[in-house]
Specification:
With 426 residues, the protein is α/β, with parallel strands linked by helices. 35% of the residues lie in helices and 18% in strands.
């Protein structure tokens, strides 16, 4: 490969024993900080092409190679300030701002501090030197404080009882660590609410970025999520002011907004931002009630009949639809022509797996995870991420882990991909 001018890794090691493999892994780990590129692990491969052929591959990975992951890279840095942001539910979140450090190939200068309890438990102060790492090589987090390096002028930090965005009263919710703004019209909440509504998991209005959201709110075009479907009425003003862009960009976004009216209602439900109701719960609710109107008039007892629905979520739904302003919001969606009913062709092919709950684990020989989930749901089944007493079947593939053990302990029936396909055919 070198002779052909192909770029190769120069410091690979040929190992003949397991001990030599570990020595090579440790050697690479010791020198990873000196490499001209970033790594998060080392790969061990069988060298014989004949052995590779015999071992074969799964649909996703070769059986003749495995990765060893090193512990997360950590760096020391100093906290310069702590900023506060407000989410769509009014929750105030503190974020540490520190001297930039390079972690896993990117420059990091911010990390969430979650809430006041986290700040107090960690005893982190402005001016402190802290240990920063990336969780899963992606999300920056603070592991600890170097208290022996604490300067004399290090400042304690309290979130306080005032919203940093609108100045309204902020209170700590009972039995939680959350401090929330009490103003339902707080502009920060509206921004986050709109961003959630147009996101991929909700109405999936592509191209509706945060800059457009802020601009449309600032200019008074959007005061709530239903106003999104009234933007077409202001096309000329939008083009003239250039908030979204000129004619081409404005018309493109308005066209995508119009098309989103035909989405299945679980997307609308997800976008409403009801506490505890994400895309999975919204899908189950819509499959059960078939329309937003029926859900809006359902009692707590009715909602508790839906699979995996608990009392906290059920009460949150009832409270949301009991609110008059939310009822008006729903009516505006209805008048705008937003789909509120589950269509007859919502992907259900048969009811052969109706009432059955499945969990998928390991690598399946033919289908990927998204494909197998879609297949089960299209035949009326339910797929969960975790094994419980409610699970009917565990579909197990190669390299099945802890889910398989738990299913065996709970005496849950374990089937292969082939057996599942036969069950559907049967």
């Amino acid at each position: 490969m070198k002779r052909q001018g192909i770029k190769v890794i120069h410091n690979y090691t040929l190992c003949k024993t397991a001990a030599e493999v570990w020595q090579a892994i440790e050697k690479i780990g010791d020198k990873r900080g000196d490499l001209p590129y970033d790594i998060d692990g080392a790969v061990i491969k069988i060298n014989s092409l004949a052995d590779r052929e015999q071992l074969g591959t799964t649909s996703k990975v070769p059986k003749w190679a495995i990765a060893y992951k090193y512990p997360p890279e950590e760096k020391l840095t100093q906290i310069k300030s702590i900023e506060l942001s407000v989410g769509r539910t009014g929750r105030i979140t503190p974020t540490a701002v520190f001297d930039p450090v390079k972690l896993c190939g990117t420059t990091v200068e911010r990390a969430t501090l979650h809430n006041q309890d986290f700040i107090d438990d960690l005893d982190v102060r402005i001016g402190d030197t802290v240990i920063v790492y990336k969780s899963g090589e992606i999300i920056p987090k603070i592991r600890g404080v170097m208290k022996e390096q604490r300067p004399e002028d290090a400042m304690l930090f309290k979130i306080g009882n005032t919203c940093p965005r609108c100045g309204s009263l902020a209170i700590r919710e009972e039995n939680t660590a959350d401090i929330k703004c009490t103003n339902p019209n707080c502009p920060a909440q509206l921004e986050s609410h709109i961003v959630n509504f147009v996101s991929r998991n909700a109405m999936d209005i592509k191209g509706f970025g945060i800059a457009y959201v802020k601009g449309l709110i600032e200019k008074g075009f959007i005061k709530d999520i239903a106003d999104i479907y009234a933007l077409s009425e202001h096309r000329e003003a939008l083009v003239e002011q250039g908030i979204i862009g000129k004619e081409k960009n404005t018309d493109k976004l308005l066209k995508i907004i119009e098309a989103s009216k035909q989405n299945e209602p679980q997307r609308l439900l997800t976008g409403l931002g009801i506490a505890g109701i994400g895309k999975t719960a919204a899908k189950e609710l819509m499959l059960y009630f078939k329309s937003m109107d029926k859900l809006a008039t359902a009692s707590v007892e009715d909602i508790l009949l839906v699979r995996d629905m608990g009392s906290i979520s059920a009460n949150a739904i009832v409270s949301y639809f009991a609110n008059e302003s939310n009822q008006r919001l729903l009516n505006r969606f209805r008048l705008a022509g937003v789909n509120m009913k589950v269509s007859d062709a919502a992907g259900i092919i048969s009811e052969k797996l109706s009432g059955m709950s499945f969990v998928i684990t390991g690598t399946l020989p033919v289908l990927g995870r998204k494909e197998i989930v879609a297949l089960i749901e299209s035949h009326g089944g339910h797929v969960s991420d975790s094994v419980s007493k409610k699970t009917n079947y565990l579909v197990a593939g190669e390299s099945a882990g802890s889910k398989l053990i738990k299913a065996q302990n709970l005496d849950i029936k374990i089937i292969s991909e082939k057996e599942l396909l036969e069950k559907i055919k049967g």
